[in-house]
Amino acid sequence: MLIAGAAASMDWWDEELCRRIADRGRFVVRYDHRDTGESTSYPAGSPSYSGVDLQRDVVSVIDGLELGSAHLAGVSMGGAIAMVVALEHRDRVTSLTLISTSAGPGEDDLPGMEPSLQALFSDPPPDPDWSDRAAVVAHMVEGERPFAGPGDFDEPRSRALAERVYDRTRDIAASMANHWVLEDDGRPIRPRLGELAGLPTLVMHGTADPMFPLEHGRALAREIPGARLIELDGVGHGFPPPRVWDVVVDALVEHSAEGG
Fold first, then answer.
1. Which of 9, 33, 35, 76 is labelled catalytic?
2. Catalytically annotated residue among 139, 179, 216, 237
3. What's the pLDDT band for 94 if we cut at 50, 70, 90?
4. CA–CA dist 66, 89 (Å, integer)
């Protein structure tokens, strides 16, 4: 089960990547978070759900598909969701894969985001007219550029994805806003990582991640007992770019075989 990051619908898990995994004998599930794609939508800036609900949604999807348990692979916020599901619903998780994620953002022993990204979050560009498809697509494309690794930003590919996302999303303004204002249960994840002992865990992290620099991935691999780390050379933050799909697919297939 592939769990997308904040404000990301299932479209961000590229169909070709999913097909490659499926062609290796895996049943691949991707789904829309609340306020993304064709899922339930709430007023922009006023979601009536919490981060805990996004975690519970994973279990609901597993139940709805009558899977019993699933291999979870999450990127960024999706990785944090996957970790909490593994901690709170251990019997529903067969293995764990964490991509571009962190269990300790903001902690003094881990590096913060790169200054250019800090500046972007401190002074974000103005919102476009959400009813103007071309303006929103351009806004989404430029929003992805700072997160890519050197040489990995593919503008035509990013534009095609943004167009697909816009066309599938019920309320694009809500989709772009609501996940950033969610509250969770306030319990930090990092002190609990030892509880994941015995759960096959794979960490994949880009060496050029500007959001969660590499040490975040290394910390996860170090503090989750038995976890394995794959460093993706030159990769930035977010969904793995096509040039590393062979590595990612091989790792996911091998890891899910280990998890049973």
1. 76
2. 237
3. very high
4. 15
The answer to whether the beta carbons of residues 160 and 177 sit under 8 Å apart is no
Residue 14's domain spans which residues? 2-111+169-259
Active site residue 53: no
Has 109 been annotated as catalytic?
no
In a domain, 59, yes or no: yes
- The residue ranges of DSSP E strands in 81-189, in sequence order, are 93-99
Structural domain tally of the chain?
1
Please write the tens of the pLDDT for every residue from 23-73: 999 999 999 999 999 999 999 999 999 999 999 999 999 999 999 999 999
Which CATH number goes with the domain that contains 194? 3.40.50.1820
250 within some domain: yes
Q: Indicate whether 162 belongs to any domain.
A: no
User: Any catalytic annotation for residue 60?
Assistant: no
Mean pLDDT of 209-215: 98
Q: What is the total residue count of the chain? A: 260
Name which of 86, 91, 109, 97 is nearest 3 in CA terms.
Answer: 97
Q: Considering the entire predicted model, what is its pTM? A: 0.96
Is 41 domain-assigned? yes
Tell me what the pLDDT averaged over the chain comes to.
96
Q: How far apart are CA 96 and CA 197, in angstroms?
A: 11
